[in-house]
Amino acid sequence: PVTGAWLRVAGDSDNGLQGNMLRWTGTLWEPLPFSEIPSRFFHDAALDTRRQRVVVFGGSRGRAAVADVWEWDGKTWHLHQGQVNTVAGNAASPHTRTGSSAAAIVR
Prior knowledge:
Layout: E1 7-13, E2 16-24, E3 29-31, E4 44-48, E5 53-61, E6 64-72, E7 77-80
Antiparallel strand pairs: 1-2, 2-3, 4-5, 5-6, 6-7
């Protein structure tokens, strides 16, 4: 997924919640085919440069906060259930949250 272009993943718009992904071409936002996840806003998104994945966590689906983890490999979104929380040392996803931030750690 590392293309050197800005990506927009999901969000809220005048048309309601979106789950699509768009790539900035320098002049316009271009939809990427086959790149939808369940619609959401106030979610986290980060690039895992080591594994070449875009990772999305949580957010809000209207009035409901979610704690799901999605990864995009450049072609397909994959839902991950029960991810290991290495900070807490347990096998559960973090609790639902909205409006948080994500960052990529590059080593």
